[in-house]
Amino acid sequence: MIRVRPAQQNDLPGLMDLAAKAGLGMTTMPHNEKAMKKRIYLSQEAFARQEQPEQKETFFLVLEYDKKIIGTGSVFTRLGADRPFYSYRMSHLVNQSPELDIRLETDLLYLVNDYHDFTEIGTLFVDPAHRGGGVGRLLSFSRFMLFAANPSRFGDKVMAEIRGWTDREDSFPFWEQVASKFFGMTFIEADKRSTSDFRFIADLMPKYPIYTEMLPQEVRDILGKPHDNSKPAMDLLLSQGFRYNNLIDIFDAGPSIEADMKDVKTIQDAGRRKAVSGGAVTDGRKALVSTLGLSGFSCIQVETATPDSEEIPLTDKMMQELGITTGDDVMVCMMEGKQA
After folding, report:
1. Cα–Cα dist 120/104, whole Å
2. Which distant-in-sequence residues (6+ apart) come within 8 Å of 214 by Cβ?
3. What does the alpha-carbon distance between residue 159 and residue 137 come to, in Å, rounded to a whole number?
4. Residues 80-127: tens digit of each pLDDT
5. CB–CB of 200/95 below 8 Å?
6. What is the pLDDT of residues 123-157, one digit of tens each?
7. Is residue 87 classed as helix, strand or coil in its secondary structure?
8. CA–CA separation, 71 and 170 (whole Å)
9. Active site (catalytic) residues
């Protein structure tokens, strides 16, 4: 059975193998053991903490199949609490001269930190050998089940940065033609540094708006365009109620999308039910089932023949994966589509 749970220190070898498969382009995934250990440690602290702190928290989840780590997903709370979280806002400008009967339109890029105090979801990656069949959806939506089970812990707004489009050489046109002009480092170095140091962005990025008409057409065409490999994940989030509000990443120009927590479909539809003993169902409605609270969080996908009941029948194996027993309350959200 496949389940999502918090990362533990003994997951380190599997996570390092997964990071190697993700490649350096996924800069939110730690690529050395020291950084990975720190990510796990911060997550363990967050899951064990009883109350929301003033500072940013990291929740690091793994997708587990047959005791093997096949995917990861993260949650970062209170953006901007420790340092500004920068984006570019694309604003439309119209200039016209009635005397000459000329009307010109262009976009401007403004450096902003509009995502202050948002919760961010990221680091979504599934081993290519295990993709398909609803696995990515389980991993992605498990974070919403975590939010639904702990609404006071994650704030009112959520966002996600989607990796920007790359060319055939895996270079980012926006970085090469715009952002790199202001940094004396590579894209990987700048993106990696930004995870711990935002001061250099304020120091080095241009202080004035950038007129997109002055950029090459190849760059203008990809502003807000997702990487081909990231588009399915973005489409999943859009189907959940996320929206694009003309904010893009300052390094790769990928789209940033956002939602009010109350408008996210999985959070809206999730509700408490009582777990009862039952047999496996193979032709019922799909449902996400998770534990309540933070400590020991676990989420699986099941099929049920009683979608409208106040109870959810689960097999002994399912209860074991969730760490619950008959009679315990769980969070349940009915789904459509493929089974994980």
Report:
1. 37
2. none
3. 17
4. 888 888 999 999 888 888 888 888 888 999 999 999 999 999 999 999
5. no
6. 999 999 999 889 999 999 999 999 999 998 999 99
7. strand
8. 23
9. 227
